[in-house]
Design a protein that fits this description.
alpha/beta; Rossmann fold; 2 domains
């Protein structure tokens, strides 16, 4: 379960306080329900994902959970350029207490990412697609109660994306998924419920089709 109560969020920029990204948003995401996070560009979808994962905090309000939540899979950042792919993966594994399974996890990540010898080279020399594969591979090497996915399947060619989707589907069969994606087809493939962000608020829908109806109507009216 993840619950947000009266969430406000804005950022400080060079001009001072920015506008409110989230403004008194409240929501309750029950366990075992896969949720599509829907809304126009700039309404705070990625911000809310960071808040739920704990890598960012609300300006005001509280987010509560009683489960193990992933970092936002697919989101940029989180890799250290001077370190190799293996060293980056080892660092994350050790943070999560997987010393006893370290070798097996690292070999799984290397095989999944298909980086080959590049797995031993500094990440700063990776192309964008290679970094995306490494981030995804590290993420999928762990078991979470809730997976947060931000534009997850844009990490390679069709064959690699198909492999990633199959593995990810196996993961979420035993967990909850909260996903941001621009492709409506992808959201409906993985999600049953919808959380629509609009004007700083969050609106829950038991059916993702209903969420899209309201989203489309608001987009047409604006």
């Amino acid at each position: 379960m993840i619950r947000g109560r009266n969430i406000f969020k804005r950022y400080i920029n060079e001009r001072g306080r920015g506008p409110w990204v989230l403004h008194d948003a409240s929501f309750h995401i029950p366990a075992g329900v896969n949720v599509g996070l829907i809304g126009a560009n700039g309404v705070g979808k990625s911000t809310l994902m960071r808040l739920m994962s704990g890598i960012d905090t609300p300006t005001h309000g509280v987010i509560e959970s009683d489960c193990r939540i992933s970092w936002p899979l697919g989101m940029n950042g989180g890799l250290h350029g001077p370190l190799s792919g293996r060293q980056n993966a080892k660092f994350v594994c050790r943070i999560h207490g997987l010393d006893d399974e370290l070798h097996e996890r690292l070999e799984w990540i290397k095989e999944f990412t298909e980086l080959g010898d590049n797995f031993e080279k500094p990440v700063k020399h990776y192309a964008a697609g290679m970094r995306a594969r490494l981030r995804l591979g590290i993420s999928l090497a762990f078991d979470f109660d809730v997976y947060l996915a931000d534009e997850l399947f844009a990490v390679g060619d069709r064959r690699f994306n198909r492999k990633a989707r199959e593995i990810f589907r196996e993961k979420v069969d035993e967990a909850t998924l909260i996903v941001v994606a621009h492709q409506e087809r992808l959201l409906k493939e993985f999600c049953t419920a919808g959380l629509w962000l609009h004007d700083g608020k969050a609106y829950w829908f038991d059916e993702i089709d209903e969420a899209y109806k309201y989203y489309s109507r608001a987009d047409t009216d604006s």
